[in-house]
Amino acid sequence: MTLVQPPSTKEDILQYLMKHGEATAQTLAEMLGVSPQAIRRHLKDLEADELIEHHAVQEGMGRPNYFYCLSRKGRDRFPTQYDTFALSLLDTIAETVGKEEVKTILRKQWERKALNYRQKVGTGSLQDRVDQLVKLRQAEGYMAEWHAVDASDEYPVAGFIITEYNCAISHIAESYPSVCGHELEMFQVALPDCAVSRTHWIVDGEHRCGYLVQER
């Protein structure tokens, strides 16, 4: 008989911080349905393992609030499918032919991938295509999801937000930042009848990348 392992509260904490950027112990306790005392024990363990870090925010004359977020080591626990081998390969190519040639190679790679996305998302409704695109990204190691947005002052036209809470090529992006621009272009090619714009960007220090997709 196969025993089913209970879900780990520590993993739940890491997942929550990955999606929301930062949180206090009290917020984590409320959202995960765990006592504040238990949450603080888990946070202490995760800090000891260097998976999270915290900063204090002073509000008024009372005790400061402590906000917890993932450390670089904590983020690296999430899928990074391409990083290690691909970065080494790109560095080798750069040493051989130069960084400018590597940029050209990366552009050609993303153009090819974009056309592959377009073929796989098909020609259904925009919601179906966005859903399929997110599933393709999830298969590549991205913690991705989507949700619909109604027309409002913030979004004059209704559409969909694609959110990615991790970067499966984060180490590559640090050495070759042009790949981030190519990702936006990829989505535009994959959804040719849509306008795609970036709403959030991990490169700018935010905890997620976000893309707004609207029909033209």
From TrEMBL:
Pfam family, one: HTH_24
Keyword Signal assigned: no
Keyword Transcription included in the entry's annotation: yes
Gene3D superfamilies: Winged helix-like DNA-binding domain superfamily/Winged helix DNA-binding domain
Keywords carried by this UniProt record: Transcription, Transcription regulation
All residue ranges annotated as the HTH deoR-type domain in the record: 6-66
Superkingdom of this protein's organism: Bacteria
Stored CDD domains: HTH_ARSR
Signal sequence interval, chain numbering: none
Entry-linked PANTHER family: SLL0088 PROTEIN, TRANSCRIPTIONAL REGULATORY PROTEIN
NCBIfam families assigned: SufR_cyano
Name of the protein described by the UniProt record: Iron-sulfur cluster biosynthesis transcriptional regulator SufR
